Amino acid sequence: MQAATHPIGLYLKVWLLLFVLSTFSYLVDFFHVAGYLRWMLILLLMVAKAGLIVAVFMHLRWERAALIYVVLAPPACLLVLAWLMWLESGYTYFTRLLYFR
């Protein structure tokens, strides 16, 4: 079975896009963006770069859907669980303030 080959131009375009995203990530700190906007931008750029790397350089884009789900489903489940814990933390903090003065 012959391995699929991809044009070098694709890798160069992705490399350039990763360079641009890294530059934006650097500019977030350079312009002293603060607060929730800073963390949202940093996490968004981080996820975009990781997605590009996994999709193109690790060839996940060209795999079967079953393999993609096996790789991406566990982190998605962990993100949902972390979001649920974040929601619960607000309730816990509120009840501690209310009852443990």
User: End-to-end distance, in Å?
Assistant: 70 Å
SSE class = mainly alpha
Number of domains: 2
Helical run tally: 3
- The number of distinct β-strands equals 0
Which overall shape is indicated by the principal axes computed on the Cα atoms? Answer: flat
Mean pLDDT: 91
Q: Which consecutive residue ranges, at least 5 long each, have pLDDT under 50? A: none
Helix content: over 70%
Cα Rg: 20 Å
Question: What is the beta-strand fraction?
Answer: under 5%
Order of helices and strands: HHH
How can the largest sheet be summarized?
none
InterPro entries: Cyt_c_oxidase_su4_prok
Pfam family, one: COX4_pro
Keywords: Cell membrane, Membrane, Transmembrane, Transmembrane helix
Transmembrane segments: 12-33, 39-60, 67-86
Task: Explain the overall architecture.
This is Cytochrome C oxidase subunit IV. Its main location: membrane. It is found in: Cell membrane. Keywords: Cell membrane, Membrane, Transmembrane, Transmembrane helix. It is a multi-pass membrane protein. It is a single chain. The protein is an all-alpha fold. The protein has two domains: 1-62; 63-101. Helix content is 80%, strand content 0%. It has three helices and no strands. Helix 1 runs antiparallel to helix 2. The longest helix has 35 residues, at 65-99. The chain is flat and about 70 Å long.
